[in-house]
Amino acid sequence: MDKGVSNKIRILSFYSIFMVVVCHAYNLTSLGIEKERNVVYYIEYLFALEMSNIFIPMFFFISGYLFFNNHDLSVFTFKRKIKNRFKTLVIPYILWCGLWFLVVYVIQFIPQLSHFFDEPLHTMPFWKKIWLAFVDPINYTFWFIRELIFYVWLTPLIYLGIKYLKFYFLIILAALTFLQQPSLLYLNNIYLFQYLGLFSFSFGAYASISKFNIVSSFKTSTYLFLLVLWSIFILFNFYVRETFEENYWLAILCRRVTMFIGFFTVWCWYDFINKKYELQNKHLYGYRFFIYAAHGVALTYFTKIYVKYIGENDVILLLLFFVSPLLATWACVVSAKLLQRITPKVYALLTGSR
C-alpha cells in the first residue's frame, strides 16, 4: 500500500476513534437540559452525535478497503484473510467482551455502585449472561466488531456482488440504508447485518478492488464548498429532528445524507490539510484499538457518577463533556503502555497484534 494512503488510514482511524470517545462522553441523557434543548444541549449534540456519527461508515469503509487490499481474489487468499481476521477480530472480541462483563459483574457487588445498575447480572439466568457477554455485549462499543465479523464472513458474496453487478451492487445497498428498518435481522432488541455498515464495508471493498485513488486533489474552493454544504445539512438536520419523529422518512433521509456528506468532507479535508502541513504518523496512533476497546464501559459509569453529584449544572457538565474524552484517552494510552511493557503477549492478544 502507498505510504500516503497508509498514513491517511492510520491517522483518520485514530481521530475517528477519539470522536467515538467524545460521543460516549455525552452526559445529558434524561436530564432537564436535554428536554429543554438549551445551548449546552445543542453543543454536546453537535459534537457527540451529529459530527461523530460520520465515523461509523468511515470505519466500515476502511475495513472493507483493507480486507481487499493486495487481494488476488483467489479462494486461497479469501481463506487466509478470513483466518487472519479471526486473530484480529474474533479473539479480541471474546476477550474484551468477557473481561468487561466480569468487571461489571464484580462492581455490582459494591454497595456504593450497585444502584447504578437496573438489574444485577448475578440474578440473571445463564443464557442472558452469555447473551450480554458476547452477543449484545455490556462492552457496547463492540457492536461494531460484531458486525464487522459478519461482513468478513460475507466477503466472498460481497465480491461476487461487485463482480457481476458492479456499481449497481452499491446502489442497491445504499438504497437499503434509507429504510426505516436499519438491518436485515432484528433479534432480541439488537440489529444484525446493519445496512449502513454493509454498504460502507462494500464501498470500501469496491474502491480497493477497482484500484480507486482515495486521495483527493481538489481546488481549495471545492474543499470549502464541501465544508459549507456539510454545515448547512447539519443545521437542517437539527430542524428536521426537532420537527419530525425519528422514523419519519424525511428524518431518515436527512440523517443519512448529512452523514454521507460529512464522511466525504472529512475524508477530503484530510488531504487538504495534509498538503499544507504533511501530517505525520505518531507512535500514539498505534494505541487506537486499545482506546476503542477500553474506554466505553469505564467512561459511561464515570459519566453517570459525576452527573449524579453535579446535577444540572450545565456549565460544569459542558466542561466535563470536553475534558472526559481527553482523560479517558490518556488513561487508555497509559494502561496500554504499561500492559505492553509488562505482558506483551497479553497485549498482543487483546489488540489482535495491532
Automatic annotation (TrEMBL):
Every Acyltransferase domain range: 16-332
Pfam family, one: Acyl_transf_3
Any one Gene Ontology molecular-function term assigned to this protein's record: acyltransferase activity
Localization, UniProt: Cell membrane
Keyword DNA damage set for record: no
Residues passing through the membrane, by range: 12-33, 45-68, 89-110, 190-209, 221-241, 247-273, 285-303, 315-339
E.C. no: 2.3.1.-
Protein family membership: Belongs to the acyltransferase 3 family.
Protein name: Acyltransferase
Species assigned in the record: Aquimarina celericrescens
